[in-house]
Structure formats: C-alpha cells, structure tokens
Amino acid sequence: MTEQTQQSAEMNPVVPNAWQRFLASDFFYYFKRDKVAITSFVIFVFFIGVALLAPVLSPTNPYDLASIDIMDSDYAPSWTEEGDERFLLGTDEQGRDVLSTIIYGFRLSLTIGFLAVGLQLFLGIIIGLSAGYFGGRVDSFLMRFADIQLSFSTMMVAIIISAIFKASFGGDFFSQYAVLMLVVIIGIAEWPQYARTIRACVLAEKKKEYVEAARVMGFKSPRIMFRHILPNCLSPILVISTVQVANAIMSEAALSFLGLGLPVDQPSLGSLISIGFENIFSGKWWLIAFPSLVLVSLVLVINLLGDWLRDVFNPKLYKG
Predict the structure, then answer these.
(1) By its UniProt entry, which Gene3D superfamilies does this protein fall under (predicted)?
(2) What is the fold, at CATH topology level, of the domain defined by 91-312?
(3) Contact 202, 129 (CB under 8 A)
(4) Which of 58, 93, 233, 240 has the fewest CB atoms found within 10 Å of its own CB?
(5) Does the pLDDT of residue 157 top 80, yes or no?
(6) pLDDT value at residue 9
(7) Which tens digit of pLDDT belongs to each residue from 127-141?
(8) What is the model's pLDDT at position 2?
(9) Tell me: the pLDDT tens digits for 3-48?
C-alpha cells in the first residue's frame, strides 16, 4: 500500500498554491530577515487599519456638528494641567477633538495619496509604453513634453493647475469636489516619473526574443505592450509607487497648508498643520505638533519600505 501511495505521489505531484509559493520566494525570505522592513510594514498596516476604521476608532465625528460644542474649544491634551480627560490630544478653536480630526484627516490624506498615485500610474504606463514601444516622433514628442513638465517643480505645477481649476470652476465648486480635484492635480503633476522609467524599461525589453516572437505570431501592438512587456516592468513600477505615495501625501499636505487643498470642514493632515501653524504663537502647540508627528511618521515608514523594495529588486544593492 505504501509503494502504491509513493507511485501515486510521484505521478501526481502536489502543486503549491500562490500563498505557498510566496512563502518560499526570495522576496519573503529577505523580508523576514530585515527588521526595519518588518517594523515599517507593521506600522504601515496599522496606519491603514486606523484609516479604514476611522468611524469606529474615532472618539467623535468631526463632521457631525451636533457632537461639537464650542464651549470645549482650546483644551490642552488631557495629561496637562489645562487638559480635559475627555480629549486625549486636546481640542481646537472650534471644539473639535484633535485625535478625531487626525484620524479622519489621516484617512483623507491616505485616500488622496493612493488615488493620485493610481492616476499617475495610469498616465505614466500609457505614455511610457507608447513612447518606448513606438519610438520615433511619438517618443520625441511625449518625452519632450515630460521634460518640459519636469523643468518645473512638482509643487509649482500643482499650484498652477489648482489655480486654473479654481479660476475655471469657482471656489465653491473646488471646495465641493476638493478630494477629486487634489487627486487630479497631484496625478497630473507627477506622471513623468513613471513615464520615463517605464520608457527606459520598454526600450530594453522590446529588443528581446519574446517580443519578436509575439510579433511573428501576429499579435497586435497593444497586446504585446500590455500582456508581454508591461509585466516585466513591474519591479521598478512597484518601487516608484511606494515612494510616490509618500510624495503625493506630502504634496496634498503642502497644498492644504498653502490654502489650495481641502477646505476647513474636511480635515486632512495638511489642513490640520495649517490650522496649527496659525495658532503656533498663541501657545496651542498641540494643534500643530500631533498632526506633524503623524505625517512625518507616515512618510518615513513609506520611504523606508520603498528603499527596501528598491534594494531587494536590485541584487547589486541588496546586502540583507
């Protein structure tokens, strides 16, 4: 019976599933050996969980005017002499709980960051693939356009686009669709980073034999670009995306700080820092300290993960 079982196992080998293949991969092997990567990932997952569970974890809802009492305004954190035990991180001049506004603001900042990177990714992939695959005049036109945009700072491009939106549609419209507007503004401002990287990858990949074989088989250009070349460019795209999420969050914070981002009734980390900066000389240090600490921690964690991914996908750099 044992021999029959052995023969059956040899004839029908067990194929590992996707999760088993992941656990046996070099990626997971290097990850579990790197304490910085593990710590950064755990903190990042914690941040994501807080953002998703904001209505559950938040002590109050900063959007609900009925739950806000103006008499509770300007309380210091609860552990100080001027604090109130109901408000762990104090309150602002409107009586909103600072901890609640940070949690909801954190949620908005992450949403804008991920959606903006999604738009950057979409534009960058389309433009980068087209420039690298077709070459010639298409490549020259698209890359010169990207070079012109890169000659301006990201923040300058975002400010210009934001001003155009406000002048075209009005301040009320911009405030009503502020999240969508910021996603579009930041996405348009940052796509050249993806386009140039993907173009360089396509230029190297399109000369390989599998691309020539696909052409001989009669596959059309879109199928070759998206089904064959693009999967081989995913490693640099993943690394850039990690870094760009942090950049998008910082861009949103900067625009909100300058008054070109989310309105006051939609707190993001940037708008909270802007409010805190206005009150920095009045002794209300908690209004700027805690949102700034959360923003710095978030960006640091994402950048550490991005650096680790860059090293792992480049064996010449990785020393783990």
Answers:
(1) MetI-like
(2) MetI-like fold (1.10.3720)
(3) yes
(4) 93
(5) no
(6) 47
(7) 988 888 888 888 888
(8) 56
(9) 555 555 455 555 666 666 766 766 777 777 878 888 888 998 998 8
Q: Do residues 109 and 246 make contact, with C-beta atoms less than 8 angstroms apart?
A: no
**How far, in Å, CA of 158 to CA of 305, rounded?**
26
Q: 243-302: per-residue pLDDT in tens?
A: 888 888 888 888 777 777 777 677 778 778 877 877 777 778 888 888 888 888 888 888
List, in order, residues 6 or more apart from 110 with CB less than 8 Å away: 47, 48, 51, 249, 298
Higher pLDDT, residue 8 or 155? 155
Q: CA-CA distance, 33 to 288, in Å (whole number)?
A: 37
Query: Each residue of 5-30: b (16+ CB within 10 Å) or e?
Result: eeeeeeeeeeeeeeeeeeeeeeeeee
Instruction: Quote the percentage of the chain above a pLDDT of 70.
Output: 89
Task: Concatenate the DSSP letters of all residues of the chain into one string.
Answer: -HHHHHHHHHHSPPPP-HHHHHHTSHHHHHHHH-HHHHHHHHHHHHHHHHHHTHHHH-SS-TT-GGG--GGGTTPBPTTSTTB-TT-TT-B-TT--BHHHHHHHHHHHHHHHHHHHHHHHHHHHHHHHHHHHHH-HHHHHHHHHHHHHHHTS-HHHHHHHHHHHHHHHH-HHHHHHTHHHHHHHHHHHHHHHHHHHHHHHHHHHHTTSHHHHHHHHTT--HHHIIIIIIGGGGHHHHHHHHHHHHHHHHHHHHHHHHTTSSS-TTS--HHHHHHHHHHTGGGT-THHHHHHHHHHHHHHHHHHHHHHHHHHHT-TTT---
